[in-house]
């Protein structure tokens, strides 16, 4: 099979621009080079006699995340001497066994530079699921330091640097001072690499936070130096094999989601993956958490033609940023203007081609063409027809609306029950049964539905303005309009359906729900228990930021001793980047103490609707870290009567571990 090709947009970079200094100088103007986007296709340095010599120079540059014709921001970036700085920094790529001699120069003026690099030789003695430890060099202004290391283990790594500013120390990276290190195994040496490297970066001009969370509108996220919709379009043909290195060079979690297909997770060095269901080699996923400064290696094959997205599933990471270079209240340059208020209301009203106007940041578009002579497959005639009606409940403020998708027959006229809200109901489909779902929009605003994790044709995927093929592009669903989606679920499992328009607001409002595909040989779901994790309708004024099944105080879940249950967990939150879910048990006695509370034991079954490999399905302690857009299935059999709780806490890196929601479980 052919490897993925890339459609590259070639532009003429302005060599020099005049801007106000962002690194001191009392506002005096200085001339800065333009930072070039780095597609990570060519390795830096010179490789001779088994030794790679490379020099990285940290400089201040102008970065244009939206293309060179639009305003940019001054930012710290790495480059090779005599060449334009790059975002991300120059790629270091060598065969295993290579000696690397990296020289780092600090040309940032008054800032001290701390350069962090992976200890590749030490990693050889560590488990493959653990990240490489970091060594560091401290480089004074104008200074030069050299690091020597041997690339002793094949893998994907990240180098980065911080400056002496408080913001850089808080974010653990200065500006955009980060880049990829790839060590190839001998089997991959001898020809040009047939894979792709994507580095996620984020540039922020403020360490401010709301409720302990960074202000996303003051951060510009990008992939290989560009922010969507200005990121490159990856070109492919049905049947190609794609091997992608995904590196997170930011201090935040990015749950990366691929529309329409599964991908195989070949490696993920996120620290909390080891020992969990995520650590099984060769497992399949549609969404994968990539922790701060972690890397992931994934392989996938596009099986259907069309336009597809690969993006971070954190809705606040996809909000378009404001105008760059806009002056602040004091007249000093403000690099990034706020794009939404605390309630998540976006001031822009461009809803038409939502994927191109309502999304930004960490998004890649993949254009998959059919094989030569291949014809577009017509969806099978539906055996089942459903109507899904989007409604907005009355009695809620416009700043925190309540919205739901309801199956036709649960709506009376055009007015749903006043005061009723929380979350959309579970939608049950059958594996192998063609279905037609007509989405009717009774909202006063546009919407669209994405069938998250379902393998289907691109046109029905719910990505308005981008999904589809050729001139047949998915429309947005305007108020009082409708759209028919047709697909045949190919596998049983736990999936999600959710709005794909104005996600931070519509997800919190309740336009999210569980999509359960049942096996026709085992249609009984009476032993299922569903837990939908979503953000509260309003931004928090206290510790509660999350709801389970539409409530911050969920109803009691009842189980029976000795009966086997399937616990289905779905994470569709918009604020909590990672949630730690546990099932705790306590003896049913008035004399029980807190110390007697303990974790229960469950057996992992599936992730994102795909069965886990056999080695990952052994019983273990009932704890799981989840990211936005992930689903997990567990088997649990209560052994004795008593009181239990499903507890959801904030997981690192967002502040200390604290309880958000507790679901009471009563075993009888």
Strand content: 35-45%
Given as residue ranges, the uncertain stretches (5+ residues, pLDDT < 50) are 1-29, 122-130, 207-217, 327-350, 411-420, 588-596
* Number of helical segments with 4 or more residues: 4
Tell me the structural class: mainly beta
CATH topology of the largest domain: Immunoglobulin-like
Outline type = globular
* CATH architecture group name of the largest domain: Sandwich
Alpha carbon gap, first and last residue: 55 Å
Average pLDDT figure: 82
What does this structure look like?
- With 668 residues, this protein is mainly beta.
- It has three domains: 365 residues, Cupredoxins -  blue copper proteins (Immunoglobulin-like, Sandwich); 118 residues, Immunoglobulin-like, CATH 2.60.40.420; 143 residues, Immunoglobulin-like, CATH 2.60.40.420.
- Helix content is 3%, strand content 42%.
Blueprint of the fold:
Layout lengths: L4 E3 L8 E5 L8 E9 L8 E3 L2 E13 L9 E7 L6 E2 L4 E4 L3 E8 L6 E6 L1 H4 L10 E6 L4 E7 L4 E8 L3 H6 L6 E7 L11 E9 L4 E2 L2 E2 L4 E5 L9 E5 L4 E7 L5 E5 L4 E6 L15 E2 L1 E4 L4 E6 L5 E7 L41 H4 L5 E7 L14 E9 L10 E5 L19 E4 L4 E7 L7 E4 L15 E2 L2 E2 L8 E6 L5 E7 L3 H7 L2 E7 L9 E8 L10 E3 L8 E3 L5 E8 L5 E10 L10 E2 L1 E7 L2 E2 L8 E2 L1 E5 L3 E6 L5 E9 L8 E9 L1
Parallel strand pairs: 3-5, 3-7, 5-9, 8-14, 15-20, 19-27, 28-31, 30-37, 38-41, 40-50
Antiparallel strand pairs: 1-19, 2-3, 4-5, 5-6, 9-12, 10-11, 10-13, 13-14, 15-18, 16-17, 20-25, 21-24, 21-26, 22-23, 22-25, 26-27, 28-29, 31-35, 32-36, 33-34, 36-37, 38-39, 41-48, 42-43, 42-47, 42-49, 44-45, 44-46, 44-48, 49-50
């Amino acid at each position: 099979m052919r490897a993925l090709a890339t459609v590259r947009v070639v532009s003429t970079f302005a060599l020099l621009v005049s801007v106000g200094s962002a690194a001191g100088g009392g506002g005096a103007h200085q001339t800065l080079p333009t930072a070039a986007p780095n597609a990570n296709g060519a390795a830096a340095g010179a490789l001779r006699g088994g030794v790679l010599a490379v020099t990285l120079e940290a400089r201040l540059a102008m970065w244009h995340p939206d293309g060179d014709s639009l305003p940019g921001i001054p930012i710290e970036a790495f480059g090779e001497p005599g060449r334009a700085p790059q975002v991300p920094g120059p790629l270091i790529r060598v065969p295993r066994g290579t000696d690397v001699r990296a020289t780092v120069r600090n040309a940032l003026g008054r800032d001290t530079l701390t350069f962090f690099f992976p200890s590749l030789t030490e990693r050889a003695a560590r488990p493959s699921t653990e990240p490489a430890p970091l060594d560091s060099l401290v480089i004074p202004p104008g200074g030069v330091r050299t690091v020597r290391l041997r690339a002793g283990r094949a893998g994907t790594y990240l180098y980065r640097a911080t400056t002496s500013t408080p913001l850089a120390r808080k974010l653990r990276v200065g500006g955009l001072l980060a880049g990829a290190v790839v060590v190839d195994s001998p089997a991959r040496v001898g020809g040009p690499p047939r894979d792709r490297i994507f580095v996620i970066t984020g540039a922020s001009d403020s360490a401010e936070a709301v409720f302990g969370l960074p202000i996303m509108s003051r951060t510009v996220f990008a992939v290989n130096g560009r922010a969507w919709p200005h990121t490159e379009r990856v070109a492919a043909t049905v049947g190609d094999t794609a091997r992608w290195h995904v590196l997170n060079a930011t201090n935040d979690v990015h749950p990366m989601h691929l529309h329409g297909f599964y991908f195989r997770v070949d490696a993920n060095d996120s620290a909390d993956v080891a020992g969990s269901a995520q650590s099984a080699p060769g497992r399949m996923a549609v969404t994968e958490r990539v922790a701060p400064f972690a890397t992931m290696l994934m392989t996938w094959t596009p099986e259907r033609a069309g336009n597809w997205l690969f993006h971070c599933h954190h809705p606040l990471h996809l909000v378009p940023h404001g105008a760059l270079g806009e002056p602040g209240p004091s007249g000093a340059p403000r690099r990034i203007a706020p794009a939404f208020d605390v309630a998540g209301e976006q001031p822009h009203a461009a809803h038409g081609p939502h994927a191109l106007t309502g999304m930004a940041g960490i998004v890649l578009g993949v254009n998959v063409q059919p094989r030569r002579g291949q014809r577009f497959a017509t969806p099978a005639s539906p055996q089942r027809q459903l109507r899904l009606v989007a409604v907005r409940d009355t009695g809620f403020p416009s700043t925190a609306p309540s919205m739901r998708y309801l199956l036709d027959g649960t709506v009376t006229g055009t007015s749903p029950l006043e005061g009723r809200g929380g979350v959309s109901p579970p939608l049950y489909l059958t594996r192998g049964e063609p279905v037609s779902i007509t989405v009717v929009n009774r909202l006063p605003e546009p919407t669209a539905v994405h069938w998250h994790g379902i393998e289907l044709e691109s046109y029905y995927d719910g990505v308005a303005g981008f999904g589809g093929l050729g001139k047949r592009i998915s429309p947005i669903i305007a108020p009082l309009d409708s759209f028919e989606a047709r697909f045949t679920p190919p596998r049983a499992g736990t999936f999600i359906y959710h709005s794909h328009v104005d996600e931070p607001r519509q997800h919190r409002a309740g336009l999210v729900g569980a999509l359960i595909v049942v096996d026709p040989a085992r249609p009984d779901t009476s032993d299922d228990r569903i837990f939908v994790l979503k953000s509260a309708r309003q931004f928090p004024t206290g510790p509660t930021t999350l709801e389970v099944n539409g409530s911050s105080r969920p109803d009691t879940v009842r189980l029976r001793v000795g009966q086997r249950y399937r616990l289905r967990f779905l994470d569709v939150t918009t604020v909590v980047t990672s949630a730690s879910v546990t099932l705790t048990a306590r003896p049913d006695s008035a004399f029980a103490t807190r110390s007697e509370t303990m974790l229960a034991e469950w057996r992992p079954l599936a992730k994102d609707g795909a069965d886990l490999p056999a080695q990952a399905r052994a019983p273990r302690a009932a704890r799981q870290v989840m990211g936005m857009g992930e689903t997990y299935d567990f088997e649990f059999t209560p052994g004795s009567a008593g009181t239990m709780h499903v507890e959801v806490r904030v997981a690192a890196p967002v502040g200390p571990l604290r309880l958000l929601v507790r679901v009471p479980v009563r075993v009888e």
